[in-house]
Design the sequence.
């Protein structure tokens, strides 16, 4: 009878183990499309055998719980690659918008009439047309109109750069808010996991959620992570500023200085510059806001200041239609800083165009020739105005192409890593179906053992008389 009881216990254990495994497979199937879910496999452990007269007898198996199919090293590689890809992706998006400012294609925000390169050419073309009839008031008015268009082109480009910089500044604040929300969630999951693991409870789904949140965090900001005691994660920015330690989150803060948002760690240290090179969307946003746009603004300021100053000097060297000394054509600041945004036409009377040499009369065009030579002089960074602007646009285009190439390569690498991860961790419905069939057969086999044991037990109770068990 004891042997029959042992057999019953083994069969019961088999049924319980098979049912628990079936539940795991069912859970996998139900979460096949759940973001961050990691495939789980049943884990079996043989029960301690019983030894009688030197012979060991097996006592079946127990299903000890599910085990997530997760490669932590691969997960971290994905997170690192994700930071790079998101950083260049955010920068590329911003640069594409900046490039549109200097495109000659017409759009709602810019048109060829406000393109700086076209406006420079149009201004010198208007000067050239005046050569034929220096005393023509209508041709002089065309020069003032061309000058106004040129100044407007500089102002428009500078204004759009400022607007884009402001938009990126707002984005940086939004990203910081999202970062703080995720670090709070990760800290809470740290606490839950550390409380669950010592009690031998399954924390796999909590770990799945934490891994998913860490990946979301990696999209926003460059990070490093270290697994510590109690299965906790310590997370810092790529430059070392603490974000999460065990169950505690350390929030970033923002403040405005000089009209620009600065980001500080929990100790109050300004880490804006280090974040710009750290990856994630925040890194790309800050790189464009603090490096790319200021360089563009500086280049436009230099062009506006040097070109406007050279034309002012040339006009001041001649005599206008009334015989008066020439005056400055453009209003400019005292230095190049801010010149593109503030340049404006200083004269309103077309007769003040000083086409003639001093004292030569209104029909003379000697000084007009000097003004026309400005377009061929290397007055802006060692280049002519048109060459300087063309180089500026070409440099911007090359930067966009470079960042685009980097982002494409990073996307390819990220896809390869994700494919490797999915081969290990993703739920494969075909595999789950095969496992389900095997477990069902095992469950049926254990059930059949019960039927046989019931028959044997009934026969034993009836002293060997074969008895049908209903």
Sequence:
């Amino acid at each position: 009878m004891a042997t029959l009881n042992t057999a019953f216990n083994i069969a019961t254990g088999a049924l319980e183990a098979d049912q628990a495994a079936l539940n795991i497979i069912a859970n996998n199937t139900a979460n096949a499309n759940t973001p961050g879910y990691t495939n789980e496999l049943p884990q079996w452990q043989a029960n301690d055998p019983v030894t009688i007269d030197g012979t060991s007898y097996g006592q079946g198996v127990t299903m000890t719980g599910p085990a997530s199919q997760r490669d932590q090293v691969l997960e971290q590689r994905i997170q690192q690659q994700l930071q790079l890809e998101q950083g260049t992706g955010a920068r590329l998006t911003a640069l594409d918008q900046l490039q549109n400012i200097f495109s000659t294609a017409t759009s709602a925000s810019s048109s060829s009439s406000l393109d700086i390169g076209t406006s420079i050419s149009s201004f010198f073309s208007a000067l050239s047309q005046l050569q034929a009839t220096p005393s023509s008031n209508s041709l002089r008015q065309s020069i003032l109109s061309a000058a106004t268009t040129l100044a407007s082109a500089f102002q428009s480009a500078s204004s759009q750069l400022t607007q884009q910089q402001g938009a990126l500044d707002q984005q940086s604040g939004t990203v910081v808010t999202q970062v703080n929300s995720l670090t709070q969630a990760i800290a809470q999951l740290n606490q839950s996991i550390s409380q669950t693991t010592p009690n031998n409870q399954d924390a796999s789904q909590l770990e799945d959620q934490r891994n998913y949140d860490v990946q979301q965090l990696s999209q926003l900001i460059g990070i490093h992570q270290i697994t510590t005691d109690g299965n906790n994660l310590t997370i810092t920015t790529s430059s070392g500023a603490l974000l999460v330690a065990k169950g505690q989150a350390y929030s970033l803060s923002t403040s405005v200085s000089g009209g620009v948002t600065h980001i500080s760690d929990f100790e109050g240290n300004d880490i804006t510059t280090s974040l710009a090179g750290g990856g994630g969307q925040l890194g790309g946003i800050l790189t464009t806001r603090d490096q790319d746009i200021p360089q563009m603004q500086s280049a436009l300021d230099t062009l506006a200041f040097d070109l406007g100053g050279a034309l002012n000097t040339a006009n001041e060297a001649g005599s206008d239609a009334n015989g008066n000394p020439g005056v400055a054509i453009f209003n400019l600041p005292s230095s190049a800083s801010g010149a593109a945004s503030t340049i404006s036409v200083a004269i309103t009377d077309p007769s003040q165009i000083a086409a003639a040499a001093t004292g030569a009369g209104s029909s003379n065009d000697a000084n007009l020739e000097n003004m026309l030579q400005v377009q061929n002089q290397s007055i802006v960074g060692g280049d002519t105005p048109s060459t300087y602007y063309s180089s500026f646009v070409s440099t911007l285009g090359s930067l966009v192409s470079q960042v685009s190439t980097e982002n494409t390569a990073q996307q390819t690498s990220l896809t390869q890593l994700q494919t490797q991860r999915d081969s290990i961790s993703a739920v494969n419905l075909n595999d789950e179906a095969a496992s389900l069939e095997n477990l069902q057969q095992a469950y049926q086999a254990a059930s059949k053992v019960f039927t046989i044991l019931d028959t044997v037990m009934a026969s034993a109770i009836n002293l060997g008389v074969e008895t049908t068990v209903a």
In short: Residues 137-196 form the longest helix (60 residues). The first strand starts at residue 40 and ends at 46. Residues 105-113 have pLDDT under 50 and may be disordered.
